[in-house]
Specification:
331 residues; 48% helix; 3 domains
Length: 331
């Protein structure tokens, strides 16, 4: 299974190179709305192009996301706040799609695959936009990766995409559609049953819960948790026996104490236990915890990337060898 690491707090070329250097990153997810400056959107990261270049130089596989979720979220926030002037300045849907397609034309040969634009979480609307974008990139000989949210008959839409020559589909969802494990399981069961019927493989959009990865043979998935946890002073430890992912806050900086596991900062006994585990694995716990900010930041990212790949390897081991002959850049 391929695990595309997404996100990175305040990323830049130097940090990315440090993680890529020792083969900690094998696959990486970047967002168009963050790597390109788009009118009215606050997500552009100046150093992200350097990080992208570091991955390219290091032979890291790249998945390109449109970033339309960020665009939609920002527009909805401005609308709710009544900031009509600011909303009017935000790049429009047609312009967003055109600029994304232009970027695809410029860079698609550097990627494993790229996403379609699922502006609305409605299967029929996503399908219409998919066809439009498919036509726009047709001269390139590639197709965008379709997305399903499961709001409608998944078998029907998987069949519709298969009829258009798609052998790879991304699965997503939203809390308004399902928020319990049983609901997710029924959704995924229906998708994989249809996938078996139509010869379609799947990518899980942020589907990195342990049970999802180990129960369903996804070809790939993406996750930003490795970076978010590291950025807030934490590390992740995968318990293969219990099949659980634990998050521990280890930074000595109180300002880092956010998110899951932050209470561990006050638990010296558990801290010693984690220190012993990390040291036994061959890493320097004190660097992660007490090193200067930059060094500790990088080391926690290295550790968490390693941890996520351990989970991906466990999924691959359970479902069989990764199907290397399959080319996810749909042609």
């Amino acid at each position: 299974m391929r695990l595309y690491c997404s996100g990175w707090q305040a990323t830049n070329a130097k940090r990315e190179e440090a993680v890529v250097k020792d083969n900690y990153l094998k696959y990486r997810c970047f967002s168009f709305s963050m790597i390109r400056k788009l009118t009215g959107l606050p997500y552009f990261l100046k150093g992200l192009q350097g990080a992208y270049d570091a991955c390219r130089a290091g032979g890291v596989g790249i998945m390109m996301d449109s970033g339309v979720v960020s665009w939609r979220t920002h527009c909805n926030t401005l609308a709710k706040q009544g900031k009509t002037e600011a909303l009017a300045k935000v790049i429009g849907e047609k312009e967003f799609i055109q600029q994304y397609v232009d970027y695809v034309k410029e860079r698609h040969h550097e990627w494993d695959f790229f996403m379609t634009i699922d502006l609305a979480r409605i299967s029929s609307e996503i399908f219409k936009r998919y066809i439009a974008i498919e036509k726009m990139v047709a001269p390139l000989g590639v197709k965008p990766l379709p997305v399903l949210h499961g709001d409608d008959n998944v078998s029907k839409y998987i069949g519709m995409y298969a009829d258009r020559g798609c052998t790879f589909v991304a699965l997503a969802t939203a809390k308004v559609l399902r928020n319990r494990q049983t609901q997710f399981r029924h959704y995924l069961e229906a998708c994989f049953e249809a996938g078996e019927r139509y010869g379609v493989k799947f990518h899980g959009l942020a589907f990195t819960s342990i049970w999802m990865m180990l129960e369903f043979p996804m070809f790939s998935a993406d996750s930003s948790s490795w970076s978010r946890v590291a950025g807030f002073g934490g590390i992740m430890i995968y318990d293969e026996i219990k099949q659980r992912m634990h998050t521990y806050h280890i930074s000595e900086r109180v300002s880092d104490a956010k998110g899951k596991g932050s209470d561990l900062q006050l638990n010296s006994r558990m801290m010693d236990h984690v220190r012993e585990y990390v040291t036994h694995t061959g890493y320097d716990f004190d660097v992660m915890r007490k090193g200067d900010g930059e060094e500790a930041f990088i080391e926690r990212h290295k550790w968490n990337a390693r941890t996520m790949y351990l989970l991906a390897e466990a999924a691959t081991k359970k479902h069989g060898k990764e199907q290397g002959h399959f080319n996810p850049l749909i042609k």
